[in-house]
Structure formats: C-alpha cells, structure tokens
Design a protein that fits this description.
homotrimer, Ammonium transporter fold, 70% helix, globular, Ammonium/urea_transptr (chains A, B, C), NH4_transpt_AmtB-like_dom (chains A, B, C)
Chain lengths: 445, 445, 445
C-alpha cells in the first residue's frame, strides 16, 4: 500500500518533492503494521503460555492443559483465518482471501473464546471433542462478532462481550449438557499440588502482564490505544488487591487461596475490556477493577459450589468467576459509559473517532450507541448459550472417546506419562529395575 | 487512515502543506509512544515474572515469592503513579495528575526498588509488613529520585543508584532491625529443592534478557537508547562467564552452585545501569561485567556469611551481592565516566544531549557532573539506610502478624497449601482417603 | 545517522524546510532500529528461554540444560560479535569493529546453531567441552554464513540452511565421533518425569510463539518481513496438527507422546525458514508445515532408534528430527521456490527486492538463484559434517573432564544439587537431621 501510494504520487508530481509524501507514508504504514506485528506476539503469549499454563493447576492434568490448549489454538487460528476471510469478503464483495498481520491478531482473538470455554470442561472431554468444540466455537464467534461489531456497530476493543461473555457461556452451556453426576469418582485428581500451582502462576502472570496489549491491540488510533492500555493496567492493578483482601477475609485464619490469586486477579482486565478505549478515567478503571476482584473471588467461594450443586454446571477452572460475570459487567459498563459519553469530555472529533460515528452511522448519538452496546451483549449471550447447548448435544454422542467418570482430570488417558521418581535418590533409582520410558525406548529399541 | 490520507492530499491540493508538518509529527509522536509502550511491557515482564520467579528458589516459599511479589507490585505501581503525579506537579505547578504511558514505566521502576528490598526479608515477614514496607519504600523512592535526577541533575538511566543501591540498602537495613537470632529453627526450610531451583531460573532468564530494555527504557534519545541496550547486553554477557568461573573455582570438585548462576549472572546489568547511556565502549562494558561477576559470586561465598554472623543482617536472597555492591559500583562507574567525558568522544551536541547540559544546567562541565553523580550515590545511600531503619522500627511493632522463628520460609503460614503427593502413584492416591483440598471443596461443599 | 543527515541538510538548505527531511528521516531510522531492537529481544527469548527450557525434559539434567545453555549463549554472542566484525571488515576494508543492534541479532543467530548442536550431546559432555564446541562452532558458522549469504548470494532469512542444517549436522557429527557404546549404564536417567516435561513445554511454547519474529527478524524490507512472519505462523500452525495426528496414530491406544509435542510441533518453522520471505502463499506454508510435522514425528518413532543402532549416533534431544531433516527440506523448498519465482508473481521490483538482484548480482535470474540456493545447502552440510568430525576428535582428547558412561544425564556431576524432599511433609523434614545445603551454608557457616 505504501508502494501504490508512492507510485501514485510518482506520476502526478515533480520528482524531487516525492519523498515529502512517500517517506512519511512509509513510516506511517510501517509504524501501524509494526504496532500490529508486535501486538500479535504479545497476544500470542497470552494465548499459548497464558491460557496454557493457567490451566496446569490440576495435579495430573498439566500435559492436557498445555498440550490440548496448544492443539486448540493451532487449529483454531487456521479456521479463524478462513472464517474471517469469508466474512470480510461479505463486506467488500472480493472473493479472494488476503491474510495480513491484522488477521493474525483477530485469529488469536477468535481462539481466545474457545480456550476460555475449554476451562469449563478441562479434564472431562477428549481431544476429539475439543476439536469439534473449537470448530463450532470459531464459527459461532465469527458470526456473533460480525453482528455485534459490523451490524450493530457496537464497540468492544477488549472483547468483554465478543470474547469473554461468549466464550464463558459457550463453555458453561456445553458443560451443563455434559453434566457428570458421578464426577466425584475422580475427585482425588481434581485438585492441585504445590508445583502445579506454581506452574499455573506462570499463566496468570503472562496473562496479567499482556492484558493491556490484548485490550489495546485492535483499538486502532493512538489515543484510543493508549487509553485502552492504561485503563486496563489500572483495572488489573486494583483487582489484585481486592482479590487478596477477599481471599484472606473468607479463608479460615486469613490464609490466601492460590486459586483466587491465579484467577480473580485477572477479572479486572476482562471487565474493562469493552470500555477500555473510552474515557473511563483512571479512577473509573480502578473502581471497575475493585468490584470485579470482589465479585470474582466471592464467586469462587460461594457461587461455584452453587453452580455445581443446583445448576448442575461443573466448571473446572471457574471460568464463570473469571470470564462470565466480569464479561457481562464489562458489557454493561461499556453500554453505560458509551451512553454517558459527551462532546465536552471527548471533544467533537474524539467522539467521532472513538465510536466511529461515520458513514452509515454518522447520525448516531451516544445514548443510542449505549442501546446498541446493550444489544450486543444480548447477542453474545444468545449465541453462547444457544450454540453451547447445540454443541453440547453433539458432543454427547458416544463416538468421541471421552473419559469415564473415574478417569477424569488424568493425563494417563490421553498421554504417555513417565514414571514419577522425583523423590527417589538417583542411586536407588539406578539399582532397581524399572519400565523403560519413552526416551529410553528411542535409545534402545 | 493511511488511505484517507492519500485521498485527502489527492483531492484538495491547496491544504496540502498542512500534512507536511502534521503527518511526520504524528509518526514521530507515535513512534516515541510505541517505543515506550513496548518498553513498559518488557519492564513489566521483569517486575512480575523476573523478580517473582527469581525468589521461588526456596523449597516451600514459592507461593509467597510469586504471590507477594505480585501483591507488592500491583499495590506499588498505583501508589507510585500518585507520588509521581504529585512530584511532577511540583515542577509544573499543575494540580491535576495526568497518566501517560511514560508514567507506567516509571511506576514499574519505583516498584523495582521495593521488590529488591523484599529479597532481603523473603520468608521472614507477613504480607501486611510487605505492604507497609512498600508504602514507605515508594514514598522514599519518589523523594530520593526527585533529588538525584531533578535537583542534582545526575543521570541514572538504569537506576544503579536510584533503584538498586536504594532498594538493596533499604531492604538490608530493615532486615538488620528485624534481626532474628533464632532463625536456625526454620533452617530446614531455608534452602532449595531441584524443581524450585529450575523455577528460579525462569526468573533469572527473564531478568537477564530484558535488562537491556530496562536500562534503555528511559534513555529517551535514539543514540543513547541504543548505547544503553548494547552496553548492558555486553556487560551481562561477560558477567555470566566470570560467575561460572568463580562459582566453579570455589566449590569443591569445581561444581557449579545454582544460587550463583541464578543471581550473580545479573550483577553486570546492575553495575552498568548508570553509565549505560554514556560512551562506555564495548570493552568498558565487558570489563564492568567481568569484575561484577567476580565480586558478586565472591560475595555469596564469603560476604553473605559475614553479614549474617558479624553484622547481624539476614539476607535471604543475597541482594547484597546482586544489587547492593553492584549498584554502588555502578554509581561510581557512572561518576567516573561522566567526569571523564570529553567533546572529542561525544561531539559537542552528543555531550549536551547525553547529559542534558541545558537550561539551568547549561554551564555544567563533565568534571562537575561527575561530582553531582557521586553526590547522587550518597543521597541514595542516606535515604536507603535512614529510611530502612525507620521502617524497620515500625515493622518491629507486634501488630503485623509476622511468623514465629520456626515458621519462617514456610508457605503454610499465609497460604492454603495443597497436600503433596507428587510421587505417590495415582492409583494409591485414589485408594487412600485424603482431606479434600481447595478445588475439591468447590466441587462438593 | 539521523543526526548527521540533519546536520548536512542544516547547512545547505533554507531553514524552514529542514524538518521536512530531518523529521521523517529520524522517524524512519528510528522505526527501522526499533524493529530491530524489539526483534533482538524476541530472538533473545528463543535463545535463552526457548532452547534452555526445551532441553529440561530430562529428569535430572534441568540445571545442565538451562545453565549450560545460558553459558554457551553468553559466551557465544561475544565471540560471534567479534567474528562478524572481522568478516564485515573484509567487505568494507574498515579495521574498526562497530557494534549496532543488528549485530546483536546476528550474534543470537550464530549462537542458535551451537545450541542446536548442544541438543545432540546433551548430558554426555562437560561444560569445558561445550565451550570448545561453541568456540569452533561460531567460527565455522561465521565462515559458512559468509560464503552462503555473501559469496553465493543465497537467501536464507530464517536460516534453514545456515543455522539449522549446519547446527544439527555439526552436533550429530560430534556425537558420532564421541559415540558411547555403554551409554545404557545411565539409561535410568535418560528419560523425563512429569514436572520436567512441563518445564520443557515452556521452551516449546516460547520457541513456537517467537519463531515468526525469528524468521522475519533479518528480512529487512516491510513486505518481505510481513510475508516471513505470516508464512512461518501458518507453517507452525499446521505442523502442530499433523504432529498430534502422527503421534496419536503410532502410539498404542492412540496416546500422545510429550516428546513429539515438545519438538515436532516446531519443525514447520525450521522448514519454512529459507522460503519464509518468498511468495510461498498461505497454502504453500501450510503444506510445508503439514509434511514436516509428519516427517519429524515419524523420525522420533522410527529414525532415531535407527540412528542410534546402526549409525552409532546418540542424539539426546532428537535434533535430527527437529532441525536436521526440516532444515534440509527448508533448503530444498527455498531453492525450488527461488527457481520458480516469476515477475508475474513478484512484480519486477518485488523480484529485485526479494532476491537483491543488484550490483554484482544484477544479471541473476530466478533459475540461477535456485542453483545457488542449492549450492548454499551443500556448503552448510560440508562445513557441518567436516567441522563436526574435526571438533569431535578434539573433544575426544582425555583432558576435558567429560562424565563416565554411568554418570551421563546427571546434574550431580557438575552441579551442587540440593537434597530432594519435595514429598516429605515439612514437620518430618524438620525433625530428622539433614546435611545443610547451599543456602543453609550461607546462613550458618
């Protein structure tokens, strides 16, 4: 594009002044693309390391957490690139699919929804089911995203509605359909050990650190992007403190619970997603983070058991507390702050830029925009719950090789798991005979 | 937007001279802000993953290391943003606090000092004490930084004086006041296990890799920034080799000690901090790294025990070897290399840019600057030791819930720690009954 | 440079138009340097965290994997900076070595070759041997790179030939010369445990995520750089799926093998290295990734044992499957896609830019270029095998302190390894007396 511009100027101007237009244009285009190029890797880190390790907290399901997360993401981004291509060709009536770096980011975003959903069924489904779940998930995501962002023209920079609300309720609905009454049979594995909790913190921290770039990655003008980064940063910071406070408050003797630190500390980033690029102001972000830390942690303490007992929804990672509730809050905050937007705060151009009141939407005013934001939230919920129930029924078919109730949360079922002899001193291990494991097989088969 | 630009200057030719100024300006401003925006995430990684995991080496204090590091940082950056705001309003007599991305970096820098201090008291204080320590630490930091950088106009790109010297002696002074004569009671936990040493290496490597961006993050002109990155890179590289050499030299049978590799390999980055943006020249950086590797490793072998026995300073992570000594060396190197700076090496403009000999400081010459650098080092030491002793006395009050001597270095005190059954084969674990742990509680309470 | 340009313009032009040239120039230069500056850190992550943790899969060699990887890299980048300096002075007849950020990236690239080679001899050599291996490896690398890229003028953006083919066959040749017939004596340690496999996944994921920036780091014009990133991204994505498919297909009961997921999922990035910046088209990249996933995984299942039994090559990490075969494939793909390049696909300028058909190479046509690409592959193989055998013979000398056959894959030999008592409840550990370990020594010597 820098090229064709350069060429255009080339024709209609004397040679020596060309650079005046071409050079800045190249700088500009490159700058934009580099922003995106680095953005995509940051987001990449969240998808592969962040989500992957966040789910390693289970004592014997770390391979499944990291490995299947890897599989879902690698398949999902490819499928997402195709879906996007088709939907964009709807816009521009251009049959060919072009892949730019922007598409890679969007692909990561699509995948995020499915990885969130994975959290609800972690340890209870087979890799085949996960692939099916991802296939439908990406497809549903592409449609709801298209409706929310293009048709309703709602804004959702950080994807509180499009990604988190959708992904979470999609997963929870599937988990509801796949309810296992006898899951207690494998309850001895449905918990963490010391090391696995430390591994999970790797996921937490990488998600926490890069969340600002996630929320600001697609906010495409400088101001909006900085606002998004800063608002997210502040919301996340305040969430950490309230999470620690509530966790300590409700545990006996004020001890902290690692599961809260691993998850609820991220809730602020989810909730500030939609409104991130709006003028939320620092204290607005801090307040959002403050309450989400409370709600999310309380969710783990009181609401997860209720979901399990009463609503028959088994939510392995507690995504309802980390993504579902904060996502909905984010959608509502977005709708309110959009409806409350005024020229005095944004300035005429600011309002126009932030909400893109241009072209067919030139006549929109903030209050109306607020309504469309709310409508967007409903669309996300409908697609999530409807789609989730449908996919859940598909996954109920007895052909997918899912584990028995007593084998849930166990890597042994889908992975070659090496013998554990961590604590056996090498010399002893050397003396006693043991089944050669995979690496040895390679060496001496 | 690249588009509309092409279109704009295409159609209305008269207005075309506007873009000549506006467009490059936008490129320029964005470029700067993106540099900072990415800088902040790199620094983020050091603060949350780097410092957090570096302290996980203790066998039963990984939750405390990563978790409390997370808590301190999340609280600290918020408090730091406020402190900065107030201090900048001192400069510009502007009552309102504006938060830009630059502030986020500076906030990370403030926090770094407190996380360094945490290393000295790791495992021996309560989270409440840590928060108090952070509150005062950030405040002291803001004042000493203001005096050193703004009043004395000393340069300290990588914060050898402002961050490392201050943070280390602040923590050591606190540890000295909180001296525990009977700490041996929990000495069985004051050591590492195999896995915890590997976790600590995650911290080491992320600190090592991003140190060049840490030292160059606030060096704000292209040349200085590249110099800072390259000098740091070289200093760190040479430190690794000397650390390995000394570690092997002083251990029986030439074995390497993981604690040296985890820590001393970073000393070069600390020591080159102040002088990073000066014309230190590659071999200058290599020499600084070379000696710091030696001094830091020797410190672990000979000086830490001495600190413990004679000076009654218990330094859990050995920050005296990683931050205190290298920080002071860095300050001295900075003072000397500033005093030795000449027009022939920097060029007239170079000298002016590097040391900002402008405005009120227009008349300064390198020799004088060297003096002010030395003064800056003294200021850092005074604030650190004075402030540390005061805060230490505050923390001695019996109201903060700190652990008993026999419970130090133990996550059990402040965390819900899951049962460890790593090495018990799942089938056994399945047969015997165990206390349901946190995740199970959620599932069946 | 932006500076001197500014100054030049300053003299020979009326004042008001200065900025027109200087400001865009500064933007432009800075943009380029920032691209590189961030590129270098991304690549850094692969070198230190990626390669380091990828090799931690062995149950008792994690210290050696991360620690020696760290040592090799830190020494290697320094030696590489010197080698580069000398070779570039060959070009410009300029005696002085200047270090720019570009050099840091190239240094990381040189080191990558040696780290790949380390994978073949992991656990079987002493740190001294590793340093010797690195010294020669970097030297050989610098020569073969100079011949391939500057003399033959072959293109190799991602280093399929220059880095992977060379590094892998260099390591395999050394391993062949150092063949240990009685390696079975330490076979009890030549395998993984649960935690070590999870640690290895940290390496895998960081390599996987940043591979696109690795392959695009030195592709220096915007278009080529984006193509390189996108092609690599797609190749990697498809590799993951085929790896999972083959791994499940050949394991009994369709279980997945962690060693395949850890390694073969990266093969696509290796194979697409040379052709990454060419117009491979999305499906071209997907196809390359598809077949490399199959070949690499099959290699682990069938070829590694064959190498061990018949060819007497003991390849600890299976680099033959991850780097050697995919590297050669990459070289061939590069040669073919270069020979097949046409103006219709690239456009006149595109062809010229992509292959740098300028200066002495102005007359080259794609078919000829294809020939030179193939020649480049041969050069890489000759240097690797020839150099490897020579270095292997040097390392066979009985002066390097390498481990006995029964002590291979054991950190105990070169590291102070802490007692493991992970699974002993603290209270027990507290009652029984134990040998004070390193940290305790510090506390009470």
């Amino acid at each position: 594009m820098g090229n064709c511009m350069g060429i255009r100027n080339f024709c209609d101007r004397p040679k020596n002044t060309n650079v005046r237009w071409r050079l800045p244009a190249v700088c500009f285009v490159w700058q934009l693309s580099m922003i995106i190029l680095f953005g995509v890797f940051d987001v990449h880190v969240m998808i592969f390391v962040g989500f992957g390790f966040l789910m390693t907290f289970l004592k014997r399901y770390s391979f499944g957490a990291v490995g299947f997360n890897f599989l879902i993401a690698a398949f999902g981004i490819q499928w997402a690139l195709l879906m996007q291509g088709w939907f964009h060709s709807l816009d521009y009536t251009d049959g060919k699919i072009k892949i730019g770096v922007e598409n890679l980011i969007n692909a990561d975003f699509c995948v995020a929804g499915c990885l969130i959903a994975y959290g609800a069924v972690l340890g209870k489904v087979s890799p085949v089911q996960l692939l099916v779940m991802t296939l439908f998930g990406i497809t549903l995501f592409a449609v709801e995203e298209y409706i929310i962002l293009n048709v309703l023209h709602a804004k959702d920079a950080g994807g509180s509605m499009v990604i988190h609300t959708f992904g979470a309720y999609y997963g929870l609905s599937i988990s509801w359909v796949l309810y296992r009454p006898n899951l207690d049979k494998s309850k001895h594995l449905n918990g963490s050990v010391y090391q696995s909790d430390v591994f999970a913190m790797i996921g937490t921290l990488f998600l926490w650190m890069f969340w600002p770039s996630f929320n600001s990655a697609i906010a495409d003008h400088g101001d909006g992007q900085h606002r998004a980064a800063i608002n997210t940063y502040l919301a996340l910071a305040s969430t950490v403190l309230t999470t620690v406070a509530i966790s300590s408050l409700f545990e006996k003797t004020g001890k902290l619970d690692m599961v809260h630190i691993q998850n609820s500390t991220l809730a602020g980033g989810v909730a500030v997603g939609t409104a991130a690029e709006f003028m939320l102001s620092p204290y607005g972000s801090l307040i959002v983070g403050f309450f989400c830390g409370i709600i999310s942690t309380m969710g783990y303490i009181h609401f997860s058991p209720f979901l399990e007992e009463k609503l028959k929804i088994q939510d392995t990672c507690g995504i309802h507390n980390l993504h579902a509730m904060p996502g909905v809050i984010g959608g509502i905050v977005g709708a309110i702050s959009a409806a409350a937007a005024t020229n005095t705060v944004y300035g005429d151009l600011g309002l126009e830029n932030t909400f893109d009141f241009t072209g067919p939407f030139a006549k929109r005013v903030p209050t109306i925009q607020g309504g469309y934001q709310a409508a967007g939230l409903c669309v996300a919920l409908c697609f999530a719950i409807g789609g989730g129930i449908f996919v859940g029924l598909v996954l109920k078919l007895p052909i997918w090789g899912d584990p028995a109730d007593e084998n849930c949360f166990d890597d042994e079922i889908y992975w070659e798991v090496p013998e554990d002899e961590e604590s056996v001193p090498p010399i002893v291990a050397y003396n006693n005979h043991m089944i050669p494991n995979k690496h040895q097989k390679e060496m001496n088969m």
